[in-house]
Design a protein that fits this description.
216 residues; alpha/beta; 7-stranded mixed sheet; two-stranded antiparallel sheet; 9 strands; 27% strand; binds S-adenosyl-L-homocysteine
């Protein structure tokens, strides 16, 4: 089947999850095949995670859709992503915050940070900055952030990430060891923090100071 048709069918299939229209539109504008390795490119428009090397994966489209939906991204926002991977999720968020907004995305594996930079450039986004570092404690350089998206699973919600979230901010983060749940963390305008757990998810581990240790 033609790539464009597969892309449309995939995005249409996400409607049944109740994903907001702005997220579906953004996902329609970002070509996922630019973010997957050559050997799995035929599967770029199937709703599954795919290997991107170094034991890591590009998340399944429905997972990216759910996280971006819960983040309620708005034009002009400053977003921190932890776990750049292929750069695909960063590109979708870049669409949603527009040229007035900015995505700072941290990746611990140098080769993936390089790959993501290439992918983001090929897709034409100028509002994404990729940083090679352990992002488990966030980054003070550009804090506070309107939104924080953690795309690997943490043993618990790192405190520095809550601190780096703006009042009125939202963070999505998978938490857990063998079974993980997606947490939506809201920091209200008065600074109070509310955590809500959604369904079970499967993510690669967040490895670092506030994550799991490397040998685990
Ligand atoms: N959002 C990505 C998928 C992420 S897979 C995409 O759209 O393709 C999770 C990524 O988190 C992996 O690339 C992994 O190397 C990275 N990661 C794990 N621990 C990290 C840490 N402490 N800091 C930054 N990145 C980390």
């Amino acid at each position: 089947m033609e790539r464009e048709i597969q892309h449309k069918l995939l995005i249409n299939s996400l409607r049944s999850l109740g994903i907001r229209q702005s997220v579906l539109d953004a996902m329609m504008r970002v070509p996922r095949h630019l973010f997957v390795p050559e050997d799995v490119i035929a599967s770029a428009y199937t709703d599954t995670p795919l290997p991107i090397g170094h034991g890591q994966t590009i998340s399944a489209p429905h997972m990216v859709a759910i996280m971006c939906d819960r983040l309620d991204l708005r034009v002009g926002q400053k977003v921190l992503e932890i776990g750049t991977g292929s750069g695909y999720n960063a590109a979708i968020m870049a669409e949603l915050v527009g040229k007035e907004g900015h995505i700072y995305s941290i990746e611990r594996i140098q080769q993936l940070a390089d790959l993501a930079k290439k992918n983001i450039e090929a897709a034409g986004y100028e509002n994404v900055t990729i940083i090679r570092d352990d992002g488990s404690g966030g980054s003070l350089d550009h804090a506070p952030y309107d939104r924080i998206n953690v795309t690997s699973a943490a043993p618990s919600i790192p405190n520095p990430l809550i601190q780096q979230l703006s009042n009125g901010g939202i963070m999505t983060i998978p938490v857990g060891n063998f079974t993980q749940r997606l947490y939506i963390v809201r920091k209200e305008l008065d600074g109070s923090v509310h955590k809500e757990a959604e369904g079970e998810v499967v993510f690669v581990p967040l490895i670092g100071k506030y994550g799991f240790q490397e040998h685990e």
